[in-house]
Write a structure and sequence with these properties.
With 66 residues, this protein is mostly beta strands. 0% of the residues lie in helices and 32% in strands. It has a domain of 26 residues. It contains no helices and five strands. A three-stranded antiparallel beta sheet has the order 1-5-4, with no helix packed on it. Strands 2-3 form a two-stranded antiparallel ribbon. Strand 2 and strand 3 form a beta hairpin. The radius of gyration is 14 Å and the shape is globular.
């Protein structure tokens, strides 16, 4: 998954019911519902080199909307 430059928020869905922010990623952002999302910032410099050994790394994600 390629993310555009900027800040992005995410959570993990456990057992189809409970949401959990990423315990291994300290940056957090409010989720608008009184909880927290994990946050990741993609800097401008990352657009030029986002891979290991100049090979593109792939990442998967599932988007769930209620």
């Amino acid at each position: 998954m390629r993310l555009p430059v900027g800040q992005h928020a995410y959570k993990f869905l456990l057992d189809g019911q409970r949401w959990l922010h990423d315990p291994n990623n300290p940056p957090k952002a409010p989720d608008g519902l009184g909880g927290l999302n994990s946050a990741v910032v993609v800097p401008e410099a990352a657009r030029r080199r986002v891979s290991e050994n100049d090979k593109q790394l792939e990442m998967g994600a599932t988007q769930i909307r209620s």
